[in-house]
Each structure stands twice: as C-alpha cells, then as structure tokens.
Amino acid sequence: MTLLSVKSGVIGLAVMLLSAAVHAEAVWIDTRSAAEHFFDSIPGDVRFSHTDIVKEVSALYPDKNQEIRLYCRSGVRSGKAMEALKAEGYQNVFNAGGIDDAREQRGLFAE
Q: Distances in Å between the alpha carbon of 3 and those of 9, 13, 67, 106?
C-alpha cells in the first residue's frame, strides 16, 4: 500500500463522513402563506406553499432520503404537503403539526 493510496482512502472517507453529516440534519419547512410567515416565523426555516411543495423541495433537496419536517398553522396544510412529497418518492417526510408544535419539538420559544 502506497502513501498515495492511503491518502486517497482517507480523503474518500472524510468526504463520505462530511456528506453523511450534512444530510443528517432535518430540513424544517413552513407550509403557511407568505403573510402568515411574515408575521410569525422560525428563523432559518424555509417557507414553501403546500401547493408548490413538490416543485420547490425537489429543486433544493433532490435527495429523496433527506429528512424533511413540515409545519403550518394547525397541521392540515403540512399534512397535504407531506402526502404530496411521499407520492413523489420522498421517504423521510414528517408532519410536525402547527408552528407552535414545531417550536416545542425543537425546544424553541416564540419570539
């Protein structure tokens, strides 16, 4: 085994571990309207309307194994979004319920 092959193996392992770490984080998506999001939102979360969810998610998160957590006001729109994403082959999609439920699940408090 040469030094070059060991170095290549280490680099390959590092890339694999970094890739796994990046994909390990859940993506949180607010499926409420733009107006609702304007008045109350969780910093760092993206917002996609539940009617556009498949187009938007497939553009940003093409890995169908990406963990995706959805929420809205009460869980109805996020439930519709979850079903649409699952129908497109996304495997790890969850309905977190309403925005307050999403905050609670993450240990966040309303600002």
A: 10, 15, 38, 45
